[in-house]
Structure formats: structure tokens, C-alpha cells
Amino acid sequence: MTALLWPGDERAGELMSDGAVLIAMVAAETAWLAALAATGVAPADAPRDLAELVGPGDLTEVTGRSEAGGNPVISVVALLRERAGPHSSTGRWLHRGLTSQDVLDTALMLCARDVLDRLRAESATQVAALAELADRHRDTVMAGRTLTQQAVPISFGIKAASWLQGLLDAAEELTDLTLPAQFGGAAGTLAAAAEVAALSGSVEPAKTALDLAARAAAALGLPAGPPWHTARATITRLGDALVRCTDAYGRIANDVLTLSRPEIAELSESAAAGRGGSSTMPQKVNPVLSVLVRRAALAGPAVAAQLHLAAAAAVDERPDGAWHTEWSALQLLARRTVVAAAQTTELLAGLIVHTERMRATADAAAAGLMAERRSLADLGPDPGSGSNDLASYLGAAEELVDAVLDRAARYRGVGS
Amino acid sequence: MTALLWPGDERAGELMSDGAVLIAMVAAETAWLAALAATGVAPADAPRDLAELVGPGDLTEVTGRSEAGGNPVISVVALLRERAGPHSSTGRWLHRGLTSQDVLDTALMLCARDVLDRLRAESATQVAALAELADRHRDTVMAGRTLTQQAVPISFGIKAASWLQGLLDAAEELTDLTLPAQFGGAAGTLAAAAEVAALSGSVEPAKTALDLAARAAAALGLPAGPPWHTARATITRLGDALVRCTDAYGRIANDVLTLSRPEIAELSESAAAGRGGSSTMPQKVNPVLSVLVRRAALAGPAVAAQLHLAAAAAVDERPDGAWHTEWSALQLLARRTVVAAAQTTELLAGLIVHTERMRATADAAAAGLMAERRSLADLGPDPGSGSNDLASYLGAAEELVDAVLDRAARYRGVGS
Amino acid sequence: MTALLWPGDERAGELMSDGAVLIAMVAAETAWLAALAATGVAPADAPRDLAELVGPGDLTEVTGRSEAGGNPVISVVALLRERAGPHSSTGRWLHRGLTSQDVLDTALMLCARDVLDRLRAESATQVAALAELADRHRDTVMAGRTLTQQAVPISFGIKAASWLQGLLDAAEELTDLTLPAQFGGAAGTLAAAAEVAALSGSVEPAKTALDLAARAAAALGLPAGPPWHTARATITRLGDALVRCTDAYGRIANDVLTLSRPEIAELSESAAAGRGGSSTMPQKVNPVLSVLVRRAALAGPAVAAQLHLAAAAAVDERPDGAWHTEWSALQLLARRTVVAAAQTTELLAGLIVHTERMRATADAAAAGLMAERRSLADLGPDPGSGSNDLASYLGAAEELVDAVLDRAARYRGVGS
Amino acid sequence: MTALLWPGDERAGELMSDGAVLIAMVAAETAWLAALAATGVAPADAPRDLAELVGPGDLTEVTGRSEAGGNPVISVVALLRERAGPHSSTGRWLHRGLTSQDVLDTALMLCARDVLDRLRAESATQVAALAELADRHRDTVMAGRTLTQQAVPISFGIKAASWLQGLLDAAEELTDLTLPAQFGGAAGTLAAAAEVAALSGSVEPAKTALDLAARAAAALGLPAGPPWHTARATITRLGDALVRCTDAYGRIANDVLTLSRPEIAELSESAAAGRGGSSTMPQKVNPVLSVLVRRAALAGPAVAAQLHLAAAAAVDERPDGAWHTEWSALQLLARRTVVAAAQTTELLAGLIVHTERMRATADAAAAGLMAERRSLADLGPDPGSGSNDLASYLGAAEELVDAVLDRAARYRGVGS
Question: Which residues numbered 1-20 in C keep a CB inside 8 Å of some CB on D?
């Protein structure tokens, strides 16, 4: 991974790392081999846990042999076959009925599942933290700002609630995503799977082939379905959902960055030991988490668009380059989203709200913040009666905060 | 609209045209004004159909006055007020409680609804046409191709079914989209709405403000909810769904373009009178619909990504430029998607399938297309028994076609 | 044009408007027809100014007939031929030897030339304004800010000089761009041109064909050269240069937006009558020019990337959709860049620098701003001797401002 | 690096790898330290080759400590200081006067220089190979194709020449790029550098600071100049030039992919041992190099656009996230471009041209390919005289090939 140039990358651990993808490719092969035996297609001595044969320690070898086939699966299969013994039952039955796209797409779904599990956990924590902030600060008056200028009073509670809306939009979508296994064979007909079934005596080889796909998917814990070699909505929806997360995180980070400017000073990141330091200026405490979250938010959309472009450029029964652009894009997007999620969780957990400063700034700006209200006075029976009390011009902020908190409670109920 | 440089633009008619957006902005103002009166906030003589005052004929004037406010709403409101008479009841109550973002966001949702209606209609036609093709050609053998090379036999039916999967992925999502109204006032608190309610004697002005928003939304036929000024998933989901459509159309067009190359000649676009001609070569019949659909598919992802970037760059209670990038991006994406949808509908309706040529090419390539099968023979009891009959090596193609057709039938049931 | 949803669009006037592109297509045809006659290929009565026959008034008709051919040229040629009389000398010789890509690419280059002329004029004004600001404010002390936090003192002069560097980087590139004519015929061999030359008795038809291309290019004031139908660096360089302009404008606008926040208040846009108003808040004076410039800067990169994608997807002697994505992208990018340029020119001309507020903020933050200096004191013989005078810690700011001003002077010398 | 999911990555070796960037950061610190001593600012015992202290073996530690500072420089400096001994002369003087952006930007320029060196070498080989192909095949007749359909005859020589134009457009730009060092200190004023100069007794500390920057740049072999912390054309120009390379490679790969379809079979990739194999279909020889080159071409534009977005979002004296998106984007783009360059070089070196098949296809299509010519016959004195000989309808192909070959010769002269 490009860890050096993406500070915080380690927060994603092994999620969709090269090693994790390799493990997942081997798991896909293992599940298929087991299904071949379970359906009586392959002999009982064929299946084994292929993870015993090839693992992350083989990354360099696998990687170095991948270009010739255009993808890493061919070299994984070759290595597995070598190590199992090409004439052993395992070596003979391995990968029979599959195509490399089956293995790589399924592996990416397995990795994506772990990524979504992590993101859902982060979301639950974030939603709880933000709900607490929105609730606690429903009476914390501050200046609302539009187009950089002070507009009308708001509460910090309703600002937090608007952050929370974005998080919930992203989080709810994570819950809905489907990550199906991919088992279709060379051109999506399961022809080789049916053929090996027939060779083994199946009287309904097509049905056996579908059964193989269903069993292998079930063993991996993924939904089965028709192959999606060239219908890539599975991939684009995943990408869109990931970038919807970084959109939501970025929107929060932007506010923290703006409001932690010293001239505004209404929010601060928690000053963890050693964080935010400068290489040369000892006084600096930079809002580093927010900077790095914003980084991810600015970088996400183009990567997700790459996945759409791959879908749009699909052709034939497997495209000539478009598919190949997906793997790295998905890996980058997934890991960066996890990193940003973890940073956002920490950011929210430690966020310091300077309520007095909010109030003081708003009070000093009261004449401007209440100008809209004054402009409405002519509509009433008694022009000029409008109070100048900021807290009295918050409209339905309370009710809107409640509505968002209700939604958060429902999400947390579902998620728990 | 940039009609000259986007041939086929006229297929989108007035959907999300400048004129349509203007009409929708005026409709949003009309609905709000009516709600003000219906809740007793404004007097009974305030509401009127503002479309009588300002319409597409005023586009040039509205547009020319928009820069000063940074968006077109301010000039629309000014023009409405001028024409209603600034001191008339309509002129006095117009736009009270709203902010320009409310009006423009709501207007875009209204236009998007019409766009989705049209896309759903196109989808229904496309799904029917493709289901018919998939069913009719389940026994039409052709060469499956991967990475540009002949791979194993497939049927044209399963190819059509894979196109159909992509269409259904996109079409089902169109059914699920929510396009909420936006009514929040200057900073999303409904403060001005509550204020005018209070001035008119409401004892629960916050509740009245929420009621105003609910009524105005209902009058427009849009769902109500908390304001989403800076939580832009509504916009990004819409953009993602639109580009998921062009992804699916593009994938079809790519196959038509490839398979209508004269050296392959397995598909042709219907030769409508005068279509596909060249400015200089009289023999040419270019697959123009596919070319133009592919154009839209290549251009879509970057525009949808722009909407994500806007979401990711949101800040304060209204951002300083990010929001402003959304309008034109959404308009382009929506109109181009409609154009591509209509072209795809026509493409599918007229698609000519050269079944003999498919068969002849596959037969000539049979040795290669059946190589996978031969390679499996050693797994059986009787190596070499594998027939060389292409139709016998289609695996579960029949069953997979059926599965996709079932899904199409469910979609059409839902959609009807 | 999508004028309603891109406020300020009218600043671009007719530059690369649909009408301008149509006029330029007709001009390309006129120049070619004249060259045919000048080389003796066509008779003397063939050439005429085709602008008399077709012009912006025909946009609707041309546009409506463009889809069938996939581009607008075929319908322009048909209309020209109709109006000239298909059997007239003009009607018979019109477009002979050309292909539609020749006409459209050349037309876009003609329009791009006008765009660059305008941008160069704006650049000259901007550079002069910024050079003046940088020079005038070389002693205006303010807080330097990094990662949103106050860092060390700077002068507003050096900030303006850094803006100026970006402008010069963009402006110098505009000077270097080449916009060649495109004359290659159906597949870039000039075969039809040579053929008509041969038919007219040319003994060296290939040479005559090249001569035709050279003459037509010269008549249009564009450089000639080999056809570039599928070698699209001409287009991508133009796009990159345009977005380099909006990058530079955006960087300025971002600073103005930040520094005109009321809590910072170090810069303001000039408050032109009526500008920056809100639809509801009477006190608001929004930095509208900066908002709109930032909008263009956020939207530019994805459009320029579309041009690269078109180049990367080129295939055959004319691609099947990639080329078709270029036209609208180039139009959008060009017009938006011109609009942003004009807004930036006005922004710089009216920029108000609040020098006292800069100084006051910096003074109040002096302890922090000078912390780096204090941290260096241990390196000297006399720790602690460092003065706390902000103006004494500006390093080589003077010299750096001078270096940028020198560069600006050289640019202005070249440009004049 | 994400080697597993970008097959062929190893072709880029260590170019702009994490290790190379780390080495380059240390080299920038070494050069600055040496300059401090050479100007008499630091004592003579301060400088040393810091590569002795920190190197690629420390990547894990450096990376793991980078998030706190938001970039890797702070942890590199900390590690260098620890290892040099914080109280040693080296430890005390290290990094004095610099900011982390200076070190990282300069390091990226050093790595980019190596990348450009490699790309220029690949370009020279590619240009030679293509010039040879263009020259050899100037009489090899084939069908020209537009919008996927056969158009008019061309030679393979002129097709190769059009590929060559694209390569030259990219290659010439690589020669022109400037990669300046970045030395500006915390806010681009060189204040700390001037301060340490003053502390060491310099009477003209600003001049000494500029001298330090010039010396350090010279030691690294990079041009010096004013800091460009927020004027990012250096980065965007580099990115644009890289993607212009992959645009050119992709355009070639697209043609190879199309023309190596078995139904066309006019070109083949060299069948290197073991390359292009399938995981399941023994007969397959996939055009893997072209697939992987096309992959890079499809993925490049969005990454280069990310660099423009970073430039457009710059703010303050160092931006709050935009800068942070550049590093990884530049690394990806640079490495992928080198991989694609090497693959293109190999592709061109081994390209097999099936001249008989080209001719046979063109002959079989002669009636259509000559239709344009026939349509011109009415312009001559003797309608119908046009020969049907394909080779006689190549227009100025010879002359155009010569023009491109001349340009290639000039490039190779310059490059040698």
C-alpha cells in the first residue's frame, strides 16, 4: 500500500490490503473446490484448505508473475497447483469450472464485506457521538453562516444534527448493500462447471453447475445470483456508498477546519499528545484529523467515478482493460474510506465545543444576525416588536433536532 | 442548452431545461405562498399562481440579473415582486420565510421528478424489448469473447440477458429514489417562517413553520423532511442513479459497436432513413445511435463525481461555491441521460441480429471455442468423449436467462 | 447555453457559443472552397462567403437535423448545399475533399482562438492589478496561515505575489498554445482532396491537396500541419491550459473567501451596487464574485479530464464516441474559464485590503507568530536576543516579491 | 505499492516508490544542511550524508509516526534527529529554516526527475520503433475505419504515423518540463532561514537565505526559484504531461486491441512465452500488453484531474487537505505511466503486422472503400474514370508520413 504518502493508512489494518485480497482469492478457490466435492463432482480427497498452500508470504512471487496473465489469479492458481502437486486430486480439481474474473471479483466482495463491517461499526459510534452532541447543544446559540458570512442565529445542536443527517444517509446505505459472489466461468454460462458435472455423471449438469455456485457462495457467506461479469452495478454501488461516507465525513471536517481557525475558535480538535505539531513552529496545533479527513473527501469522488467509467466501458463477455482498472480503484477507495471513518470517529469523540466563544461572537453580531427578523416586522400588526434575543429566533431548530435524533435512534436500533 | 454540440439533445424536450427550472422555481414560490395563506399566516388575498407573472419568456432578463446574487432565485423573486406590485398582498408575502436555496433545490427536485418519470417509462420499454430478445435468442449460438478474443460459445440470449441485468440494476434504483422538497430558511432553522407565523398570531410558531413546509411540499407532490442544505446525499444519489443508467446503456452500445464492425457483422442498428450517413462517403451506414449512447456513457461519470465533490466540499450553513457547481452538473447529467435513454430504447427496438453470421463465425472458430471443454476431458472417466457441438457447451445459459427474465417480469409488474 | 444555472455566463458573450461554432464551421467551409478555386481545382465561380447562406438564425434547424449524422456538420453542409443550389457551382464544390471532423475541429480551433485572445487580455489586466497590489503591500504585515492556523508573519505583498505566480504560470502557457487547422479528409490521407485535384488536371495531386490544406488554414489564420484526427494533444493541451487558469483564479478566490469572513475581515470584495445581496437577509453582503470564481475552479478539473479521456479512448481513424464527448466539454470549459477570468479581473480591481485589521490580528497573535523565531534562538550566540517585531521576521519576502514582479514585467512586455 | 492489483507494477522498479520518496526526503535535508554549512550559517561539523541515518529500512517506523503531523516529514526529521543525536551539531542544525512542505515537495521533484528520465528513454525507443514501422509500411494498404465502419483505404504506415504524432506530442512535452526545488520555510518567506543566517552573523540575512535555497537546489540538481507552496502549476503540468503519455499509449493499444480481434486479425502482439494465457481456456492468447496499457490510459485522466483540484482548492499559505491529496496521486500517476511506457515499448517492438490480411480485407471491401472516390467523379471531365485501385486512393499519405518522420528525426536528434 502507499502508506508513506497517505498518513493514517495503518488505521485500515489489513482491510483490503494486498495480503487480504490474496487470502480472499485463495478462500474463493477453497470454497469452490469444496463445493465440487460436496456435489459429488470432484472426489472426496480433492478439497482442502488452500490457505495452507499459498498466503501473504507469497505476495512477491504472485505479484511478479501476474503481468503475463493480466491479472493475479492465474499466478495464484499456478502456485496452488504446483504446491498441491499438479497430479494430486487437489491439483487436478482446483479452479475447474472457474474463470479468473470469478475468483478476483469474489475475493473483492469478501474483502468489501470486512470493510463494510468496519464502516458500520464506525458509523454506529459516530452516530452515537453526534446524537449526543446534537442533543447536548440544542440551546447553544451560535452564528449561522452562509457563503462565508454571518446569516442568522442557529444552535450548535442543529449544526450537529445536519452533520448527523449526512452520516445517517451514508450509514443507512451501507446496511443495504449487496455483495454477491461471482461464479460464471469463462463467459458467464457456467459451461465448464456443467461439463465437469457431466463428466462426473450428473444427469442435470446445468442444475449441478448452479448448485455449485450456490454452495460456494454460501460457504463464503455471500449471496448467489447470475454472474455479473459485465453488469457492474455491484461495484459502482459499493463505490458510490463509500464515497457517500467520505462526503459526509468531509462535510464535518470542513466545518471543524473553518470553526477552529483562531479568529473564529468555536471548535477544536482534541489535542492528543504529539498530534498536530509542526516541523518548525512550536506553537502550532494543527487540526490534523480534519485535514486528513478532508483530504479523503476531496480524493474520493474521482476514484468512485473510475468505477463508473469501468462499468460504462464494459464490452464483450469480459472487457479489455476496463475491468482491470477497478481493482486498484476499489482498494484505494475502501482503505481510504476506512481510514477517514476511523479519523472521523476520533474527531467526533474528542471534539471541543467552545460555547462561550460561539455565544460571544453571535452576540457581537446580533444586529446583523437579526436583520432578517427585523425585515419581517412590517408583516405583523406591530412593526418593530421583534425581540433582539438570538435564542428567540431559532425557528423550529428544536423540532428539527428531534427529528434527526429520532432517525438516529431508529438507525441504532436497526444496527444493534 | 448546448444543443448544437450534443446531437440528439432535442429528445429531452423541456426536461430540466432552463425554462423548466424557471417554471419550477416559480411553482415552489407559488406553493409556499399558498401554504402561508392556508395556515392563516398570510391573508387570503396573497396567494396566486405566480406562473401568470413570470415564465420562460423572462429567461433572458432573469439570467442577466442573476450574477449579482450568485443564483437565479433572487432575480426571480425581484421580478415576481415587481410584477405583483411590491405593495400588493402577493408582493408583500411572496418568498417570506424562504431562502434562495430552498427555492432552487426544490425546483431541481421537481424537474428531477419529471426526468425520473421519463426514464422509468423508457426503462419499461427497454426491459420489455430486451426480455423479448433474450428469450427469442436463447438458442442463437455465437462466440463468447473475452479480452477481445474468442473464448467459449454463448447464446445471444445470455448476452442480451446480461445487458438486461444492467438495465434492471439501473431501473430498480430509479424506483427507489426520494426527491424531498427543501424548505429551511436562511440557515435551515425555519426561523423566518416561524417568525411570520408568530407575527400572524400563531401560538406555536415552530409547529406552524413545520406545517408550512409540509403543506408546500405536499402541494408540489414532494416528500417533506428536515432541510438538507448541506447534507447532499439527495443530490449525489440522484446523480449516481443517472450515471448508473448511462453505464448500462453504454455497456450495450459498446457491444453493438463492436459486433456491427463489418468484419464481425453480428449486429446492426436499424437503418432508419437518412441515419448514419457520412458527409463524404456515400456507402457508410454508421451505428450512430450507439456512438451517441457511448458518448453519454463516457461523459457521465465525471459529472456525477462533480456532485459528490460538491457534497464533500460543503461547509457552513451554505457553502461558498460547492453548491453552485451542482445546478449545471445536474442539468447536464439529467438531460444527457434522458437523451441516451431514448436513443437506447430506439436502438433496442430496431436492433438487427444476424444469427447466421453469429453461427458461421462460431462454427469456424469451433476448435478454439471448445478448447476449454477438451481440456476438461481428462477429469472424466472417458477422456475425449466431449462432443464438439457448440450448442452442447452452453452450461446453464438457459437457466440464467430464465432467472433474469423472472427478474424482468417482477420489475414490469412493479412498474405497471 | 445553460445560462440560467451558471450565473455570469453572459460575460462570455458569444465566445464559443453555439452560434459562434456554427459561424466558424461555415467559415471553415468558406476557406476550403476558396482554396479549391485558388488552386484551380474548383472553377472561379464556386467560392463565395457561405456566411450569407447559413448563420446563427439557422441554429434550431441545424441542431434538429444533427443526430442522424452524429454531428452537426452534415446538416450544415446539407443546408448550405440546399441554399446555394445543389447544382450551382458552389453547391457542387462545397465541402469536396473534407470530412465532418475537419470542419468541426477547425471550427473549434477558430472559436478557441477568440477565447484565448480574451483570456490573454484578461490576464494582462489581472497581472497589472496584482503586481500593483504586491508592490503596494510589501510592508503590510499580516498573519501567515497554514493548515488554517496562524503560522508566522507574512506581508500581504508576498501573498499577492504568490497569487501572481499562479496567474503568470497560467498566462504564459496561454501564449504558447498552438491551435492548428484540421484538414485531412475521411481518414486523414487527404485522398478526396487529391482526387478532386487530379480530376481538375493537377499533375501532382498529393501536393495540391497539401497546398489546399495550407491555403485554407492560412485564410483562417491557423497553422497548418498533418491531420490530428486521433492524436488529440491539441485538445488536451488547450483544456489543461484553461483549467490551469481556473486553478489560479480559484486559489485567489479561496483566500478572498477566507479572509473576508467577518471574524477575519482582512479583505473585502468591492461592494458594487446591488451585488452580494441575499433573498431574505438585508444585512448580507456576500463575496459573490469569489463564490462564483471558486465554483468554476471546483468544476474545471473534471471537464478537462474528460478531454484526456477522449484522447485516451481514441481508436481507428475516427473514434466511436470519444470524439463526440469533446465538443461540449470544450465549450463548457472555455466559456466558464472566460466567465471566471472576467470575474477575477473585476475582483482584483476592486479588492479592498483592510491593512489595520491585518496588523491588529497579527499583533494580537504575535507570541504565536514569533514562536518559530524564538525556537531558533538557541542556535545563535545570544539566545533570546530575537526581537518580537513582526516586520523583522519576514525573511526574504521583499526579494521574493521583487522576483515575481520582475517576471510580471517580462510577461507584460511580451504581452504588449 | 498496490502491486498485486496493478499487474506489471514491477516494471517501475523503485521509481517514486515509498522507499524512493523517503530517500529523496533525506537527500533534500542533506542538501539543505550542506548549504547551511557552506554559507557559514551552520558549523562545519554539522553536515553529513543523512542517508547513513535513515533509509528505506525505516519505512514502517516513519509511516507509522506520520499521521500525527499530517505528513511524513515530521517523523523523518524526528528520526534523523534522534539518530544524529539531538545535541550533536547535525542534530541541532538539521531542517533549520525548512518547513515540511519544502522537504516533501522537493523530494517529489527529485523522484519525478528520475521518472522523466525513464520516460524519455522509453520515448526514444518507442519513437524509433514507430518511425521504422511507419516507414516500412507506407505501401501496406488497409481499410481505414471511422465510427467502427470501413471508410476509405489507408496505409498502415500512415496509421503508425498518426500513433507517432501522439507519442511525439507527449515526448516533446517531457523535454520541456521544469521541476524546481521548493525552499520557502513555514510561510514561503524564508524567514527562519534568514533568522539562522542572522544569528550566525550574516549581515544580509535575506540574501543569505536566498543563497541557501539556491545552493541546496543546485546540490540536488534542481532549478531554484521563488517558493511555490500554493502556486501548483509545477505539479499540474507534471501530471498533465504524464497523462498525455498514457493518452498516446492508450490510443495505440486501442488500435491493437481492435485490430487483433480474430475477425479482423490485422495486428498481433508478439506471443512471448507464457504471456496472454487464460486460467481456463488453453487456446487463448490475449493481447495482454495492450489490455494493461489501455487500463492505464483509462485510469490516468481522473488522477491528473485530482492534481488540478488540489491546485484549485489551495488556500492560505498551505492548504488544509488539498496539498495532502497530491502525494499519492502523483505517485500513482508516475508509476503507472512508467509501467505503461515500458509495456508500450515492448508492444511496439514485437508488434506483428499481418499485411496480407490487411490487403485481403481491404480488397474484399473495395467497393465500399472506393465509394467516396466514385462520388467525386462527377466533378471531373470524364465521370467514371476513377480507378478502383486502392493504392491509388491514398492521397497525400506518403507526404504526411514523411512529415511525421521528419519530426521524429528532429526529436531523436534533440533527444540524443
Answer: none
State the Cα angle at B179 between B177 and B183, rounded to 5°: 155
Q: Are D188 and D317 in contact (CB under 8 A)?
A: yes
pTM, rounded to two decimals: 0.98
A-chain residues within 8 Å CB-CB of B173? 233
pLDDT tens, residue order, chain A (416 aa): 459 999 999 999 999 999 999 999 999 999 999 999 999 999 999 999 999 999 999 999 999 999 999 999 999 999 999 999 999 999 999 999 999 999 999 999 999 999 999 999 999 999 999 999 999 999 999 999 999 999 999 999 999 999 999 999 999 999 999 999 999 999 999 999 999 999 999 999 999 999 999 999 999 999 999 999 999 999 999 999 999 999 999 999 999 999 999 999 999 999 776 788 877 778 888 999 999 999 999 999 999 999 999 999 999 999 999 999 999 999 999 999 999 999 999 999 999 999 999 999 999 999 999 999 999 998 887 655 557 799 999 999 999 999 999 999 999 996 44
Residue of C nearest to A280 (CA): C372
In sequence order, what are the beta bridge partners of A262?
none
* B268 touching chain D per CB within 8 A: no
Q: Do B400 and A243 touch (CB under 8 A)?
A: no
Nearest to B164 by CA among B356, B351, B411: B411
With CA atoms as reference, the chain A residue closest to C301 would be: A302
Q: Does B372 touch chain D (CB under 8 A)?
A: yes
| Alpha-carbon span D391 to D138, nearest angstrom | 10
Residue B243 contacts residue B329 (beta carbons within 8 Å): no
Residues of B in contact with C192 (CB under 8 A): 280
Q: How far is CA C10 from CA A104, B25, C3, C14, in A?
A: 51, 21, 7, 8
Please state, in angstroms and rounded to a whole number, the distance separating the CA atoms of residues D240 and D149. Answer: 32
Q: Are B154 and B359 in contact (CB under 8 A)?
A: no
Q: What are the CA-CA distances from residue C180 to residues C108, C133, C192, C337, D170 (Å)?
A: 10, 37, 20, 21, 17
Nearest to A309 by CA among D384, C326, B297, D95: B297
Report whether C93 contacts C50 (CB < 8 A): no
D342 at the C interface (CB within 8 A)? no
Active site residue A75: no
Residues 6+ apart with CB under 8 A from A174: A116, A119, A120, A123, A241, A245
Mutate to test the interface with C, among D309, D401, D406, D410 (most CBs of C within 10 A): D309
A278 flagged as catalytic: yes
Q: Is the ipTM of this complex over 0.95?
A: yes
Q: How far is B57 from chain A (nearest CA, A)?
A: 30
State how far the Cα of A240 lies from the Cα of A188, in Å rounded to an integer: 25
* Site of grid cell 446496511: A175
Quote the CA–CA distance of A282 and D229 in Å, as a whole number.
20
